[in-house]
Amino acid sequence: MASNPERRATLVDAGVDVLAREGARGLTFRAVDTEAGVPVGTASNYFTDRDDLLRQIDARLHIRLAPDPDKFAELLTRPKDRSLVAAFMHDLMARATHDHTGYLALLEMRLEATRRPALRASFTTSVRADLEEGIRFHREAGLPGGDETVTVLYLAMLGLLLEHLTLPGALEGVLPGVGVPEGLVERIVETVVPAPPS
Q1: Burial class (CB in 10 A: 0-12, 13-18, 19+), 118
Q2: At what angle do helices 29-36 and 50-64 cross, to 10 degrees?
Q3: First to last CA, the chain
Q4: Contact 104, 27 (CB under 8 A)
Q5: Distance, CA of 101 to CA of 73 (rounded, Å)
Q6: What is the DSSP code string of 115-140?
Q7: Does pLDDT of 1 surpass 80?
Q8: How does 136-147 read in b/e, with b if 16+ C-beta sit within 10 Å?
Q9: Mean pLDDT of 67-73
Q10: How far apart are CA 138 and CA 80, in angstroms?
């Protein structure tokens, strides 16, 4: 296996692009080579097989879509209330919208995991770890609500992201006067996160 880390990263990012655009069936070593602009046969020197490439795409997507630590540090200087939870959810939406290709590839990974038991196992582990990290972060940050709040937020935001990034018109006007996606993020937070004591 070739070990040039920069070339490997380029190939994995090319794999993300191919996966988002063509789906898992279009994710071939030749397609990755073409997307990366490298000689045919290069990807086969870096990945043992498609499962290896998919595992590395999974790891790369979690890096690409991760929050900016400086942005999170700045947000954590604010009061620990509903508005801060909303700010974190807006940040999540902004990251997914900014890296639209990465998020679509992540959705393709979910679909492919239903067909590949090994990928299902590794992808389930990484998604579960992300959810548990969100729960841990919420607790340690002292944000309102508990584990159930985080889990329901996760599920609601996953649905909003799915619709907004794949079928944005489906949500337009569903709640009159509520903008998509910003207004819907606010509604999700208002509905899920406990109100402050009066």
Answers
A1: exposed
A2: 40
A3: 62
A4: no
A5: 26
A6: T-HHHHHHHHHHHHHHHHHHHHHHHH
A7: no
A8: eebeeeebbbee
A9: 95
A10: 10
Q: Calculate helix-pair angle for 50-64, 117-141, nearest 10 degrees.
A: 20
The pLDDT tens digits of the residues spanning 97-147 come to 999 999 999 999 999 999 999 899 999 999 999 999 999 999 999 999 999
Task: Output the pLDDT for position 197.
Answer: 81
Q: Is the pLDDT of residue 154 over 90?
A: yes
CA angle 117, 119, 120 (to 5 degrees): 60
- Is residue 69 within 8 A of residue 78, CB to CB? The reply is no
Look-up of token digits 């996760």: 154
Round to whole Å and give the CA distance between 63 and 81. Answer: 27
Q: Across residues 87-91, what is the average pLDDT?
A: 98
By three-state DSSP, how is residue 16 classified?
A: helix
Q: Rounded to whole angstroms, how far apart are CA atoms 112 and 122?
A: 12
Measured between alpha carbons, how far is 134 from 99 in angstroms, rounded to an integer? 20
pTM: 0.93
Q: Is the pLDDT of residue 148 over 90?
A: yes
Q: How many C-beta atoms surround the C-beta of residue 98 within 10 A?
A: 12
